[in-house]
Design brief:
The protein is of the alpha/beta class and 324 residues long. Helix content is 35%, strand content 20%. β4 and β5 form a beta hairpin. α2 packs across α9, α3 packs across α9 and α7 runs antiparallel to α8.
Length: 324
């Protein structure tokens, strides 16, 4: 289970928050005030270990890596998630940050969100990569992302029944500029007519960006079933009401109605010419490209040397000789 609370005070101290809410649309801009001096990485270490613990235990067992508690000081040659390619770790960072933000800040609707467990064990290509790497250290390559939503969380009543689902996309980009974000949201440029010479006049967006995936996600995403199965495995008694209420909304025929919030989190360093409080995504009303019709929350996270923070966090996980 994911049991570590987010370091809210430390995170809020390091980021300026600029929220906007208009009806069923919310936008929050977070700006890192200065590059991390090590204290933020230290504060985030426990949260990231908690987020990755289920996948780490699952992957290491399936790969054949011994994590017996008696093996004090033992560090396997290959380990999840530190042995994954840097590009993959940056993607994982975005997904964990989506959970942290959702548990830390108030979004549109002011719901209290819970993240009982992260779904990283379903990152099949990460497992395949590490399985091969443990047997042949030369077999390095890039990995593809996990299928389905990047993030899923729940709103629970006092009896732990599910009252609402939040899910969506979390994306890291090294430098956030207008062009980078446009490509991220709308897809790459493609030729309108393949028979004609490539030119600006003969190109259009593919439409296979973040908005496409958010708009086409089912009302109850497949990640909800994965989450339910993990709760059944890890805490069937403590989350019995959650498991049962998830079952009622997951049946294929006549499911119980459930409300949904769509979440889009974009994380990266600001561009060289970026001005303070400058947003790259709409912040007053939902963009025309969003057509799903649920509550929509956008979060833009502007970091200062964010790649250094990511590397510091991931290289410190499960190491006792370092604070972060």
């Amino acid at each position: 289970m994911h049991t570590c609370p987010p370091p809210k005070d430390e995170f809020k101290k390091r980021f300026a928050e600029y929220p906007d809410v208009n009806g069923n649309f919310g936008h929050t801009l977070l700006e890192q005030l200065e590059p991390d001096d090590g204290s933020l990485a230290k504060a985030l270490k426990g949260y990231f270990e908690s987020a990755h613990l289920d996948a780490r235990d699952k992957f290491h067992a399936d790969i054949g890596i011994d994590l017996h508690p008696d093996a004090v000081g033992y560090e396997p040659v290959v380990a999840y998630p530190v042995s994954l390619p840097s590009k993959t770790r940056r993607g994982l960072f975005g997904e964990v940050i989506a959970g942290l933000l959702t548990e830390t800040y108030k979004y549109v609707g002011k719901h209290d969100w819970s993240v009982p467990i992260f779904l990283f064990r379903h990152h099949e290509d990460a497992f395949q990569y590490l399985f091969s790497l443990a047997r042949d250290p030369e077999r390095t390559r890039q990995t593809i992302g996990r299928l389905g939503s990047d993030f899923i969380g729940l709103a629970l009543d006092e009896d732990l029944n599910v009252t609402r689902i939040i899910s969506g996309e979390a994306k890291w980009r090294q430098t956030l500029t207008e062009g980078v974000v446009e490509t991220l949201m709308l897809g790459d440029w493609v030729a309108k007519d393949e028979s004609k010479k490539k030119s600006k006049e003969n190109r259009e967006r593919s439409g296979k960006g973040v908005w496409y995936f958010v708009n086409n996600e089912p009302k109850v995403p497949s990640g909800a079933r994965q989450l339910q199965r993990l709760l059944q495995e890890h805490d069937p008694d403590g989350h019995d009401a959650t498991i049962l209420s998830l079952q009622s909304i997951l049946v294929a025929k006549n499911p119980a109605p459930i409300s949904k919030t769509d979440l889009v989190v974009v994380v990266g360093n600001g561009g060289k010419t970026r001005k303070e409080r400058e947003c790259l995504l709409p912040f007053k009303k939902a963009p025309a490209e969003y057509t799903a019709g649920n509550d929509l929350q956008i979060v833009e996270v502007i970091m200062a040397r964010g790649e250094e923070l990511i590397d510091t966090i991931y290289e410190s996980l499960w190491k006792e000789d370092t604070d972060a």
